[in-house]
Here is the input.
Amino acid sequence: MDIKKVLIEFTQLNGTSGMEENAAEYGIKALSKYGKVQKTPLKSIICTVKEPEEGKPHLMLEAHMDEIGLIITHIDDKGFLKVGQVGGIDRNSVLGAPVTVHTQSGDIKAVVCCQPPHLTDDHSKLPTIDEISIDTGLPKEEVEKKIKLGDRITFDCEPAMLLNNTITCKAQDDRSCCVILLRALELLENEKYDCGLSVVFSSMEEVGGQGAKTAAYIVNPTHAIACDVSFAYTPDVKPHQVGKLGEGGMVGYASILNDEMSNKLMEIGKEKNIPCQAEPMGGGGTGTDADGIAVTRNGVKTALISLPQKYMHTIIETISLDDIENTAKLIAEYVKTLR
Here is the structure.
């Protein structure tokens, strides 16, 4: 598997929360190689890789495929679009960004309006999402023919390789983790293991995690590993609060997570010389799909592995391809130990 190629293909697809069809189509094709695939009413994808046997563990691996974006809420008198946010958006990276408006008749390129610095006296205030406008270049009459309220908008960013085997592009939260799970399945393809195995690419994580929780209800696993992104070190954060790019997946420790599973993952990393790092979290939950999965039905033993990522919820999300490979190896090795 060419990790870089798959990552670029996957991240460049449209898939805002609740409108994941394009990303889901790609996921279905990729997962069909490993088992029977079904789609849930909330558009999550479930792949049954190995049916569980009576009395044996059933492990669900999960990552979400939706991305942050915008939804059109108004068209003003001049044809500019007003928007609301789909998921949490870092406003620092919005102004001047190139975007794509997804309509029933096709995609339309546009830009987020920004005021030239020459025309403002106050550079300290960022507009809120409902204060910004989108410019398609069309007058109102033409906009209303092509675009309707409720259409979604995604941010554009040409993928770029940086130094040290790192890559930057949009939607790596969380399609980079979908790629991790695909790579883990590839590593397991000719291996024997005793547990049942299902893989979920979930919907709607960025707006509440409904896709993963309902998919977990269908799968009914005994164990689960959620795979998401977490914060990696940049100069503007405290080093002890974040992980580091290139040092492997971040194994979560939190009240809602299963310490036995987390400890086993760290143990495997040490024994197999697979880079990984611990991520302790205060409070009750993790802010990821792991929280909803863990409380599905009568409860699921759940672990969380996060991929270190810089610049989360921007159009320049940055990860290490080495971390993708090593996290996939860690997950594959865990699967082989579960009995």
Remarks:
- Helices lie at 3-11, 21-31, 140-146, 172-188, 210-219, 259-271, 289-294, 321-337.
- Residues 40 and 218 are 9 Å apart (CA to CA).
